[in-house]
Amino acid sequence: FHVTGVQTCALPISLLQAKAQKLNEINKEYKKLEETGWDSSFGFFLGISANDVALLTGAYTLAKEATALGLPLPTIIAMDNTPVSFANLEHLTQVMLQYGNARAEISSRFASKRKAVEMATTIEEVKAI
After folding, report:
1. Strands 6-7 and 38-39, sheet pairing
2. Which residues pair with 2 in a beta bridge?
3. Fewest CB within 10 angstroms: 4, 12, 67, 74, which?
4. What is the distance between the alpha carbons of residues 90 and 94, in angstroms, rounded to a whole number?
5. pTM of the full predicted structure?
6. 22 burial level (CB within 10 Å; 0-12, 13-18, 19+)
7. pLDDT single digits (tens) 100-124
């Protein structure tokens, strides 16, 4: 293309630019996953953001206290804003353990990708991530 009458060619991408682009792709991939949430396999999705984790952890703590006091379990809210109730603490515990494992795996996977980008020494390595 021409800029003020001078022909130029596309400059080669630098390693820093490749890393920035790849990190942007990874962040978009994570954001999309945040929008989708975690599939509980029980017919509802739970959010995976830090706020969601804090809210679900709090709800679980309250559920344990409610059980100890003989009170009904609190509901949690699914991604589609539907309340989700549990018949007993054991079922809620099962879901929360699965959620915690999934959330840890997601965090680990994305941290590994970001670390691989940081450690890459060539554009080819970055592209392979």
Report:
1. unpaired
2. 7
3. 4
4. 6
5. 0.81
6. buried
7. 999 999 999 999 999 999 999 999 9
Tokens of 103: 């959330």
Summarize pLDDT for 36-62 with one digit per residue, the tens: 999 999 999 999 999 999 999 999 999
Please answer whether residues 44 and 79 qualify as being in contact, where contact means their C-beta atoms are separated by less than 8 angstroms. yes
Element (H, E) at 7: strand 6-7
Residue 46, CA distances (Å) to 64, 107, 121 in order: 19, 15, 37
Please return the burial class of 3, using the count of CB atoms within 10 Å of its CB with bins 0-12, 13-18 and 19+: exposed
Residues in the chain: 129
How much is the mean pLDDT over the chain? Answer: 91
Provide DSSP, 55-75. Answer: HHHHHHHHHHHHHHHTPPPPP
Residue appearing with tokens 């962040």: 27
- Tokens encoding 35: 């929008």
